[in-house]
Amino acid sequence: MSVEQEQSRTPRRVSVTERRLRISEDGTEGVLLGRKCLACGEHFFGQPQFCLKCTSGNLEAVELTGEGVVTTYTIVRQAPPGWQGDVPYLLATVRVPEGPQIASEVLNCPEEDLKVGLPVELTVRVGGQDKEGNDVVVYKWRPRSSA
Amino acid sequence: MVARPGREVVITGVGLHPFGRFPDKAAQDLAREAVLEALDDSGASYKDIQAAYFGHVYYEGMSVGEAVLGQLGLTGIPVINVENACSSGSTGLWLAFWAIASGQFDIALAFGAEKVPRGPVTTTGADSPERLIGADFMMAAYAQMMRRYMSAHGAPVEAFAQVSVKAHRNAAANPYAHYKKVFTLEDVLSSRMIADPLTLYQCCPTSEGGSAAVVCAREVADSFVKDTSRLVTIAGAGLRTSRYGGAGEGSQIALAAADAYEMSGQGPKDIDLVQVHDAGTSGELLGIEDLGLVERGEAWKLELAGETGIGGGLPVNTDGGLQGMGHPFGATGIRMVHELVTQMRGEAGDRQVKKAEVGLAQCSGAGGIATVFILKK
Fold it and tell me: What is the rounded radius of gyration, in angstroms, for the C-alpha atoms of chain A?
């Protein structure tokens, strides 16, 4: 690679964790990943090996719906260690239709609009860089567009 | 169905190292001083102890419990180091209780100590993906718990702030407390916002300290204690972790309390005073509801009405709780028991509640842990 090509090479985009988020090649879209217990029907975010409800090991991989409803929230004003985003940031716990509750930052939302019951949809954003210099893509929420 | 103790277990002595910041002391020093105070209080000497359980969280090397007690003499007893997050100390006490109740030992020591560094507390490590997700932050979790409660029950933020006001008023009367400054409601609400609506003075301070208790079988206590009127019985004990889908009545706090109530034969109405895990102020309101001491959704009214104060109908955290005492993780569980015992002996001075015959101590641990002790005079 020439020096010019090296300098203009854009960082690789990786998922914050492939156990929870599958991203498109360019990192602009994502799908929430989970598992469903075939013994009791419960759904989980991520890839647990065993059902947290009934302990069965008979689970299958599923995609979770990329939208939900805020069940609680806060506005974090002191950055926890390792956070690379802005402070303050909106943090909400969102229940997706399959059942799991997923906590992450809320974007594009004025503070006064954030409330319990707010409908939101999944979005993905670069949340920071990892040790190798890759851009790390994180699942986040934003108010659901009315369209 | 909870197991029953095979024989009565009593607390014969308690000790505390003051909570605060002690740059010239190691955690081992805090532990040792609490142990010596508890032994002195119990009438037993170290060579009488048959087993010991040391609660602490942060790694300071292997076998710290053995290192502390080895300073008192190498007697060859079994020593166990216990880590159960913020409930490490109370877990050690639970183990000691059952060891004596089952007849394995006649007399044991449970102690805890910690030097918690300053700064935000998280549960996962530096390389975890949680760092960039931003949801793993203990006080943000307490803030979300608060918001959910406020939304469900219409509770104002003042009810939570009142938990801190009451705690600090109690701590001002406690020489062992980390913070002895009295706060007004305005002081608490206007302190720096950590995660809305949780302000700095609604988060327990990180602290250093140590605590210890000597427990023994009632049937051998007479050979050690000078004054059997100062004995306090551990009537009930529970230790539980999260059950899937459990919240409220199904939470680990409620389940541990159910075990303790059943074992002790005491119910929520019998409890005269309570220690509850107020790491964030919301922990107190939700805690006393999960313990069945107050109807769901009513704790905030009790707090605003002053009923949880020392002169109130349900005194909570009479020594200042985690808010006022501070929270050295391994020491907190046994510190709660220390205060109950002191109250039940009528030795709490300016903090003394009128009726202290049955007390309950509830300590939580990150990772879904809850311990409950019911003590009876």
Answer: 17
pTM over 0.90: yes
Asked if B153 has any chain A CB less than 8 Å from its own CB, the reply is: no
- A8 assigned to some structural domain: no
Gap between the Cα atoms of A89 and B194, Å rounded: 11
pLDDT band for A7, please (50, 70, 90 cuts): low
Domains observed in chain B? 9-118+205-376 (3.40.47.10)
Peptide bond into A97 cis (omega under 30): no
Helix axes B281-290, B157-171, angle to 10 degrees: 100
Domain count, chain A: 1
Report CB contact under 8 Å: A127, B126.
Answer: no
d(CA B220, CA B149): 47
pLDDT value at B36 more than 80: yes
Pairing of β A13-15 and β A135-143: parallel
Would you say residue B204 has pLDDT above 90? yes
- Compute the count of residue pairs across chains A and B with CB atoms less than 8 Å apart: 91
* Domain span holding position A97: 13-143
Q: What is the mean pLDDT of chain B?
A: 96
Residue B344: name the closest of B297, B307, B301, B376 by CA. B376
Mutate to test the interface with B, among A14, A21, A52, A72 (most CBs of B within 10 A): A72
Q: Is the pLDDT of residue B235 over 80?
A: yes
